[in-house]
Amino acid sequence: MIIDIQLTAAPIPENLSPLSPPGAHGAFLEFRGIIRAEEGGQPVPALEYEAYSKMAEREIRRLLESLAALHPCLAARVIHRVGVVPAGEPAVYVGVTSRHRAAAFALLDEFMNRVKQDVPIWKRRVLSPAAAAPPKSDSHASGPPAALLSLDEAMAEIRSRCQPLPAVRAPLADALGRVLRETVCAPEDLPPFDRSARDGYAVLADDPSEVFHVVDTLLAADWKPRALQSGQAVRVATGTALPCGGLRVVMQEQVERDGNRIRILKRDRATHIRLRGEDVKAGQPLAQAGVRLNAGALALLAAAGCVQPLVSPLPRVAHFTTGGEIVPPHQTPEPGQIRDSNSTLIRGLLQNIPCDLEQDHLSEDFETAWRQLDPGHLAQLDLILVSGGASVGDRDFTRPLLERLGFQIIFAQVNVRPGKPLLFGADGARIAFGLPGNPLSHFVCFHFAVALALARMAGGETPPFPRAPLAGKLDDEPCPRETLWPARLEWNAGAPRLRPLAWASSGDLTCLPAANALIRVPPNQGLLPAGAEVDFLPAAAMIFP
Amino acid sequence: MRVLFFAQLKDVTGCHAVDLDPPSPLDSNGLWAALLEKFPGLAAHRASVRLARNCEYAAPEARFARGDEVALLPPVSGG
Fold first, then answer.
1. A123 with B41: Cβ contact below 8 A
2. Do A122 and B13 touch (CB under 8 A)?
3. What's this model's pTM, rounded to 2 decimal places?
4. Distance from CA of A432 to the nearest CA of B (A)
């Protein structure tokens, strides 16, 4: 029998001719196995095939030869796709020729049954074919990215993969902490008119009179333009619009009043007038695109009437905890169990960063967990966080879960302590992190990875590590990994300094209440003396307003 | 000897291959012992995994020696 076997990343051709010479066969039977776009009510945009190519070819050949002994055929061509195959495309092609049709039908049917038993090819669902890794012709040359990234490399990767989300207009009341995406200019002078800065009496600036006749009283909201004559005064309150130009305000404390007459006891050099446009002139920028809006910036926008600024949207974030050993915090743990603290930690940390957060706990069984998820909904989110399950224990399924959701794993380890088994995945603009389960690892990974991703999505700047001296010695054994050491940033005689906190392991929560910074300890550093200048990462509450 | 991992086993081990250098040939129990020491997570998959030696399914009495290409094959799903 003539046999041709191809494992290929390329689409299977539409038209394939029989392998046996014309005239030899009386039957030419072709089969194309095509990927269905829907399975069990779930959309299947694509499947990803992986093969142990060398062995798969051998097994297919062996299978065809053994079947041909039972069902004499003249030729068989088998083509099997590897890599990502979109729904609607054939993943497998078999073309068989025989003298009589019965042998070809029998061989083909039997072959397809046996392929699913013995040929080392595996498939997985891919939710988003565009995001999947490029097809590979020989999958055992692939596998997870093996490189162990440095902290800088990992942060650079996150920075480059996370792009600013499309801006939206939001009311000022919802804009705190968001990044301004337009430069807002003053629509008018601020203040918009000359205003009195004191409670007192407005008179002509160069009027030498000592006694004045009070001709009017203006309250804060009054607008009564008029010219003043020498010897005339107008009673004004702080903030009152002055009736004309060329005035000064004499403070009421420096005046003696008798009915409608006042006598000036003392003249200040200051005019006590806030001039129109002295804060900002119409057309001058009030707030630059890229600034994070704190309460003060919002107040300035309000003063300028910019009530719907163009700002970063609220990223939609889902956080899932995993692990059979954790129980909700209100529950008493059985032996071997612990209370879930990570949900509370993540929720608290994310309250410092504007976002829409949803949280859930996933079953420890992979398929059960998968059924808990709504991939269509998750496809709408901007950021997915999965706690626990990022290392390689047998119950750990974060990586396959993210891959099944369509994420390409960019890195799976960072050479940092704690927090090494951090997973980072991307699916276009959609980002996912698998956070190592220990709480301190969570705290560290949140600050150097998750907060960075959210800052990039918001379109804000991510400043470099600031520096400060140590308040006390940092007593560490030299570690080949870079360390992000929990610390308390405090003020000493007006200068910031960092007090290293004690921590026993990556599961140690006890230092977290005091931790508001992470000291960056270089690899193999060992002890750092008090006063040493170190780089540090401020905690989220300090990064954001 | 090079040991290859496929499909979900790559997720368990975090790599697609590992090099072992046993002083003498291993039977399948010895091979599993060496692998489980490195990757305890594989234990859950042992029952369903088939071993291949140099691109052939390995017989129960097979021995795995230096220079061999060994593969751990989880249940297949091609076609």
1. no
2. no
3. 0.61
4. 17
